Amino acid sequence: MFNFGLGQDIGIDLGTATVIAYVKGKGIVLREPSVVAVDNNTKEVLAVGQEARRMLGRTPGNIVATRPLRDGVISDYTVTEKMLKYFINKINGKTLFAPRTMICIPSRVTEVEKKAVIDAATQAGARKVVLIEEPIAAAIGAGIDIAKPCGNMVVDIGGGTTDIAVISLGGSVENTSIKVAGDKFDEYIVKYIKKKHNMIIGERTAEDLKINIGCVYPKIQDVDMEIRGRDLVTGLPKTVTVYSSEMLEALIEPAMMIVDAVHFVLEKTPPELAADISDKGIYMTGGGCLVEGLDRLLQEKTGINVMIANDAVSCVALGTGKALDNLDALSGNRRI
């Protein structure tokens, strides 16, 4: 258990796939999958985070391992509250004082979805809850000075959503959020393997394929990976070898959806800011941007230099941590 005493400030990247927490003065103190295992009969939480993720697809009938966040928003309020309570207690330790908390949200969420996040965090034990948009947090985490009057474009590809924003003078000038990101890549891999190899695989196997041999731009050398699943015809276990060229076929469609969304935001961007972006390039953050070739594909289709931020996975959490320094200033306009 951690114990940071009075006046603790916690920044939380409440991701669809991973929860990353940043504590002021300590840096990142927690990185766990957004998975909760619940006993259906008693509604008791049995495991949270890494331990619960190992149970995905492997539980008996009465135990359900679920991800309470879908497409960047809360899909199961009660389980999300329990998950947040577990993480906040783990970070906060045995202190009597409830923490002030800043939480990242996708840029295009509704007022109802915002309120759900605030209520869940408050019920989980936060003293004060402030919201910050993911692209702004990602830009701060990537080391961009967002306060200047010049355009910066950030493409944050998480687990559930891709948030694209043009930022100037500390705010978002143009933005969009689409529900195509890491999870959608996994879905397309599952569908492709089912169609091409007559085999059903789980989302963990699909994620392994995406991480190890996934690509959205042709590779010089085709690499392969052996996977196991269930044969659709016989119903028996089956092993097949999958190639990166097949992953390109599987993933190009969702990758182009992200490229089209970037095009859409660029088309609406004022010309002066568009010129800034053309000079400075596009910054990519989030775990989803690490799919091989996504930066090259975006660069080819837009004609603008594309850079992947250092520590892309933690960018949003790091940005939230830096924004904690301005918590009092932000709370006036972010709190609902």
What does this structure look like?
The protein is built from eleven helices and 18 strands. It is α+β, with helices and mostly antiparallel strands. It folds into three domains: 9-32 and 73-136 and 315-334, 2-Layer Sandwich (Nucleotidyltransferase, domain 5); 150-180 and 259-313, ATPase, nucleotide binding domain (Nucleotidyltransferase, domain 5); 182-250, Actin, Chain A, domain 4 (Alpha-Beta Complex), CATH 3.90.640.10. The strands form five sheets. It has a five-stranded mixed β-sheet with strand order 3-2-1-9-10, with helices on both faces. It has a five-stranded mixed β-sheet with strand order 13-12-11-17-18, with helices on both faces. The longest helix is centred in the C-terminal third of the chain and has 25 residues, at 244-268. The chain is flat. The chain starts with 8 loop residues before the first strand and ends with a helix. The model is unreliable at 1-6 and 329-336 (pLDDT under 50).
Rg computed from alpha carbons, rounded to a whole number of angstroms: 20 Å
Report the CATH topology name of the largest domain: Nucleotidyltransferase, domain 5
Average residue-wise pLDDT = 88
Helix content: 25-40%
